[in-house]
Amino acid sequence: MRSAALLVFVGSALCGCGGRTGLLFDLIPPSADGSATTAGTGGGSGTVGSSTSSTTPCSTASLPWLLFELDDGEATRLYAMRSDGSSGHRVPLVHDSQLYASISADGTKLTYVVFEPESDGGYDGTLYLEDLTTRTAAALLSSGEPPLYSSISGDDETIAYTQGQGIYVMGADGQSSRLVIEAPPSSTFGDGHPLFVGSTNTILYGAYHAFASIETDGSNDVTLVTEGSIAAGFFPNPALSPDLASVAAAVQCEEDEEAWVRVYPYASLPASCESGAKIAKTSGYSSAPNEAADPSWGPTNLIAYADAKDVFVVSAAGGAPRNMTAALTSRRGSAFDPIWADGCAPVP
Question: Which domain holds residue 179?
Fold first, then answer.
């Protein structure tokens, strides 16, 4: 079972995950200038309002998709919008109430976890792999100790995921699961997001107060950046640039310093926390289950990250961050766990 902290979150965001029939308030995404643009709110479970994702032909000029999890106080579902804030809509997936979503490099496959209540008051979780082109989903893993964050390798052949005290890998068919690394008794990897370095066998992952890399066979475990003392539960989960040349992470390098999204040249790691270029200042926590900023690096050199109850976007070169979800969370709810997909990805 998850920790008590996650069960509190699950109880508030996931109860009734088998039959929600729509959000309780209108979902209105912000436009590029921060004003509101109207989006359809949908009707029954598994439906969304109208969106240009299904009516506008894709072209190489199509803006990237920004996806994130939106908690409306009743359930948590995946939400999508273009990088300018347009075309905002809930993403209709085979299974309702999704958490811990991750997308493949080509934007055609999505992993996510669905929680179901158990008779003892806890929650069981199933990790699904959904093909967005065929709109079919396969259950990869179901356990009394639910899987959490996952990542799809660049060649779509392997999936890394966290479960309990360990990071595991398995085939994309859900077979041949094996432990990569187990956390020490005083810690956990359950809330740290594993991330493949392209199609290689290297995984970047977040741990308490640090992020690191390891090979899928469990060898070459290297701490890449260690941060200062911060609030328990915060994971500096790394994000890779599309060219694999740079790594972004939200870190607090000194105990009395505010947390920043910093960028590090990948080839320079391991490195000191302070060596990373400051890109955007954050509050050091988010409403995500792991309280982490969980940055994601998009195809147009934009970095998305969660801060407090919203998702922000900032240029990898720095500048003023843009709140992408203020109109969605202004009355209640929160947004977190952002991920990017190419503009031509078949986001439903």
Answer: 4-51+62-341
